[in-house]
Write the structure tokens for this entry.
Amino acid sequence: MKCISKKPLLYKTKADAKTKKVIQSYMVPMLISNWQDNKPWLIHNTKGNNLHVQPNNEIAQNNCDLIYNFFVKQVSKVLKSFTMASDNSKDLWVYTSDKNLTKTYWHNHSHSSSVNGVFYFKCVKDKGIYFREDNNTIYIEPKVNDLYIFPGHIDHLPVSSNTDEIRISCNVELKCNESIDTLFNTNNLRTIKRN
């Protein structure tokens, strides 16, 4: 785990071997197959490229908990203390893009999470992500299996793929009883080396 930016506050780690295997051997093939078979770009919806990993999908059922639990374990390496809210959702949301669907926009997850995470399942060169807070904006070029953790109020903008290559990132959220300000107060942050 590394702190790669203080403002916006952003942490980076890599998936462990077990999580990598689940992501690359099961989730990515399933998501690519769904993308190619279901052609979501033909369906007009308000969520753009954000596709809910359906709980009735057998591959998702067997692997989403492992991915989510890895995320929470990493959050505990950043925060000294937090309590999960009773209405916390362990749902995974996948942002997928290629030349067929390139919709993207600045957004945050303050309405649904205290701590947000983005896993990178499949990357496309020069199609990373921007993060901003106040007047500070940074661009990140992630690598496959990277996980970024940040406060739920941080604005971010995924850069969509506009080629034949499919870009896949996965959003995970942790809703806590404590406010974002309390969670990310310097007294509640563990000491982590800066990149």
